[in-house]
Amino acid sequence: MNTQSAAAIAALAQRGVTSLPPLGIVLGSGLGGLVDEAQDALVIPYAEIPGFPVPSVAGHSGRLVVATLAGKRVALFQGRGHYYERGDARAMFAAIETFQALGGRTLVLTNAAGGLDPAWSPPTLAAIVDHINYAGANPLIGLPSDKRFVPLTEAYDRRLLATMKQAATSAGIALREGVYMWFSGPSFETPAEIRAAKILGADLVGMSTVPETLIARYFGLRVAAVSLVTNFAAGLSGGDPSHEETQAVAARGSRQFRALLKAFVAAHEDAP
After folding, report:
1. Residue of 75, 231, 250, 263 marked active site
2. What is the CATH number of the domain that holds 174?
3. Of 6-15, 69-78, 147-156, 249-258, where does mean pLDDT reach its minimum?
């Protein structure tokens, strides 16, 4: 076990947390408000947990919230660390290893993303069905085990995708499906990069999620992921994208995002 993860487990034990719920949700830019829907919450700042990232980005509170959502206990990761903040693709490694070690089995990743389909007007929700690692970084490089050769034929669990689609239907929410391309950031993409992304089969672009998927799959977790499209990608609209726009549109899409995740949690059944 990573030494930071071991220290994190010890720190959580001192707070009385010796296990975590089997379902965890990582909340992306502007999406942390889902915690407002939860009850009986235990809130621990990342800064008090060794190895957990302290986000430097607006819209990422940096808190672990263990709470009841839609009648079930869940671990809510309110904010994430990004590769572009410190050049570390393992920014979420200790958090995910700690989650798995304390009982986590399923991880739902969420993000704000740029959309490449002109029919996906922001804010639109889309389930990620696959990804393209355009950034090229990989958090598994250098790990001292053959476990690092992680198969990704089904990086995003089909059963979880089916549950997410059922949840969307039950909540009356239109849910698209698409391929997510990871760019390192922090600069936004160029129009030429977006044209290349479309040729390569991407529907969504963003600066997160893929490292966490790789880490989660390394630890044997089942993964689902959802993007909230907050802007059209570069060159597809008249203006420049911005982080401020991302947060503003995420706030507009918050109601549907919360409804979808609550319906998913209610419908989710843990499976081996």
Report:
1. 231
2. 3.40.50.1580
3. 249-258
Instruction: Tell which residue, 216, 211, 12, has the closest CA to residue 96.
Output: 216
**How many structural domains comprise the chain?**
1
- In the residue annotation, 231 being an active-site residue is answered as yes
- 268 given a catalytic annotation: no
Q: What is the mean pLDDT of the chain?
A: 93
What would the two tokens of residue 269 be? 């059944």
- Whether residue 241 has a cis bond before it, omega within 30° of 0: no
Task: Report, in this order, helix, strand and coil percent for the chain, each rounded to 5.
Answer: 35, 25, 40
- Tell me, yes or no, if 131 is annotated catalytic: no
Catalytic residue selected from 91, 112, 168, 197: 112
156 is catalytic: no
Please check whether residue 142 lies inside any domain of the structure: yes
pTM check: above 0.90 = yes
Of the candidates 70, 137, 243, 267, the residue annotated as catalytic is 243
- Give the active site residue among 5, 8, 29, 126: 29
Catalytic residue from among 82, 83, 91, 155? 82
Active-site residue, selected from the candidate residues 75, 94, 168, 207? 207
Domain hosting 236: range is 3-267
Per the domain annotation, does 272 fall within a domain? no
> Taking 60 as the threshold, does the pLDDT of residue 272 lie above it?
no
254 phi and psi, to 5 degrees? -60, -40
Is 29 annotated in the active site?
yes
pLDDT in tens, 200-227: 999 999 999 999 999 999 999 999 999 9
Nearest to 205 by CA among 223, 224, 227: 227
pLDDT digits (tens, 9 = 90+) for 34-55: 999 999 999 999 999 999 999 8
Q: Is 60 a catalytic residue?
A: yes
The predicted pLDDT at position 133 comes to 98
